[in-house]
Write a structure and sequence with these properties.
Layout: H1 2-30, E1 42-46, E2 52-53, E3 59-64, E4 68-70, E5 76-78, E6 91-93, E7 96-100, E8 108-118, E9 123-132, H2 150-179, H3 188-217, H4 226-233, H5 236-260, H6 265-284, H7 294-325, H8 328-361, H9 364-369, H10 371-398, H11 406-431, H12 436-439, E10 452-457, E11 462-468, E12 473-482, E13 493-500, E14 505-509, E15 512-516, E16 519-526, E17 530-539, E18 545-554
Parallel strand pairs: 2-9
Antiparallel strand pairs: 1-3, 3-7, 4-8, 5-8, 6-7, 8-9, 10-11, 11-12, 12-16, 13-14, 13-17, 15-16, 17-18
Helix pairs in contact: 1-5, 2-3, 2-7, 2-11, 3-4, 3-5, 5-6, 6-7, 7-8, 7-11, 8-10, 10-11
Length: 555
């Protein structure tokens, strides 16, 4: 009778898993077919930036280096009198965006501001001007700021980190309970850990979907619209996350019996397939899907992520449960098996990480000269430290000391876990950082090559200053003002100068173009290398103003 009861339950679990898979299939069917690309760069415009044309053009054309997608309401053309000059919705054809314009517009300078989404789900924004007949005072874009709120950008990284943590908490207990857990020990603690991990992955996935709306469109945590959600759900990013949610729902019904007792072989295989498919959704929603070799990058990144989850999850189970509760005989059987698994996981991590680095970094120079490259070097250094500690643990296992004296092994495992938490945080940051292969291609509105960025504070405001490419010659300067609530702040008047006291270069005025109420832009030629002092004065009212100074190293 017991067997007859278990069998229908297993069939019900498999049917429920099939229902979850149906959700996944639907998400896959609605996913758009988009070509592979990465952080798009604006290559050319028609009319050209800062050009003077004899008569008003019927359209403005933006040509990017890669295919881009629309951010609702974030492409605007402002006429000299401050009114909207664009007519109707822009059309997107791969890398070309065409904006219809009223050709009978007034003479003077027009401001074009844009924000689009590259194939790896990251927004690219910028602005430029052109003049009809003769230049005039540039107009001001009264629309919202084109950048995501700093709180949103931080929240995106936190959500990514929580997703990685959840994956570790889920995979470790599931794997150990299925293959290594002694029958005499209670499964309650690891089971709770696994469900916590699954919950964290689900919450992080939902948070990713929510945050992607303000992240791509610009705005605060709750600046979301139905149109924004529609755009996210209709993208490859949204489809990958919906697939992940469907796979999580399907796996619940198979995970429950596995956590309660040793699972049957068929259920374990199905669960492993679901887990492997879920791992693919992380790279499909990020940089790997937009790399020069997307198929290779996606598979390698999934292997990297899975190996990380197996290794860290197993270490966590050892540190929290097995090394505390298992006896010497049990540890003597468990530790050698785990040692082999850990060696395979670490080997896969090293191989996958090497392939990833070759694809995403591309050149040795980019490894040292880009933010992505430097973060990757830090990750490699920490990983080397972890490998050294793991080698010590493996030596204890081989010498059969670990089963008799588990305390030294437990301390080594805790050290591994402590360092790898930092590695996970770096990984979450790398996901949001422009790949070195793109950043090294050259400065642009969307790239980070040679980008200097700092945040300055005053009693009235805080200001983010960005200078690119931070080299001798022409440089772009972006200024963003925020109030004490960290929200964009209205600036009535901007002024900026650049000086190099060490070379006797007196302050040079930086001509600023007001793009929005809280965002100003300027171009300046810096003739020499050195630590330039850029002094910015911002007036918030008729009587209130403050000055901040940034020291910018120019190569």
């Amino acid at each position: 009778m017991a067997g007859m009861t278990v069998a229908p339950r297993r069939w019900a679990a498999r049917l429920a898993a099939a229902a979850g898979l149906l959700v996944t299939v639907v998400a896959l069917l609605i996913a758009p077919a988009t070509p592979a690309s990465a952080h798009a760069v604006l290559e050319s415009t028609s009319p050209a930036a800062a050009s003077i044309v004899p008569s008003g053009p019927p359209e403005v054309v933006l040509t990017f280096s890669e295919s881009v997608r629309k951010v609702p309401g974030k492409i605007r053309i402002i006429a000299p009198d401050g009114s909207r000059a664009d007519r109707g919705e822009p059309t997107f054809n791969g890398a070309v965006v065409t904006i219809p314009v009223d050709p009978a517009g007034a003479r003077g300078t027009y401001l074009v501001s844009f924000r689009v989404i590259s194939a790896d789900s990251h927004p690219v924004s910028g602005a430029f001007t052109y003049s009809v007949g003769a230049p005039s005072t540039p107009p001001v874009d009264s629309g919202t700021d084109s950048r995501a709120n700093p709180v949103v950008e931080t929240a995106v990284k936190v959500a990514r980190f929580l997703g990685y943590v959840g994956l570790v908490l889920l995979v470790g207990p599931a794997l150990v309970l299925a293959a290594l857990w002694p029958r005499r020990l209670s499964r309650r603690g690891p089971t709770r850990l696994a469900w916590t991990g699954l919950g964290l992955v689900a919450v992080a996935t939902l948070a990713d979907l929510w945050l992607q709306v303000p992240y791509t469109a610009g705005g605060g945590l709750f600046d979301v619209t139905g149109e924004g959600f529609g755009s996210v759900f209709g993208s490859a990013f949204g489809a990958a996350h919906l697939v992940r949610l469907g796979l999580l729902a399907a796996s619940i019904f198979l995970l429950r019996p596995l956590l309660a007792r040793p699972a049957g072989r068929t259920d374990a295989i199905i669960l492993a397939v679901l887990g492997g498919a879920a791992l693919l959704t992380w790279p499909l929603a990020g940089h790997p899907a937009a790399s020069p070799a997307p198929a290779v990058s996606v598979v390698v990144d999934a292997v990297h992520l899975g190996s990380m989850a197996v290794w860290l999850g197993g270490l966590l189970m050892l540190a929290v449960f097995l090394l505390r509760q298992a006896d010497e005989r049990e540890l003597g059987a468990i530790l050698p098996i785990w040692s082999r698994w850990a060696a395979l996981a670490v080997s896969a991590l090293l191989l996958a990480g090497t392939v990833q680095a070759l694809i995403e970094v591309a050149t040795p120079q980019a490894l040292f000269e880009t933010t992505y490259g430097r973060l990757l070097l830090a990750k490699i250094g920490l990983f080397a430290l972890v490998i050294a500690v793991a080698a010590y643990s493996r030596q204890l296992v081989r010498s059969r000391v670990a089963a008799q004296r588990p305390v030294p092994v437990r301390r080594a495992v805790l050290a591994e876990l402590a360092v790898t938490v930092v590695v996970l945080a770096l990984s979450a940051t790398l996901v949001q950082t422009t790949p070195a292969r793109t950043a090294a291609a050259g400065p642009s509105a969307g790239a980070e090559s040679g980008l200097f960025s700092t945040r300055l504070s005053s009693p009235l405001f805080s200001m983010e200053v960005e200078v690119s490419p931070a080299e001798r010659g022409n440089n772009s300067v972006h200024l963003y003002a925020y109030g004490k609530d960290n929200q964009p702040l209205l600036i009535a008047e901007w002024k900026a100068t650049a000086a190099l006291p060490s070379a006797g270069i007196e302050p040079i005025e930086v001509p600023l173009l007001r793009l929005t109420d809280s965002h100003a832009y300027g171009d300046i030629s810096l003739p020499a290398a050195g630590d330039w002092e850029i002094k910015i004065t911002a007036r918030t009212t008729d009587i209130d103003q403050a000055t901040v100074t940034a020291t910018v190293p120019i190569r």
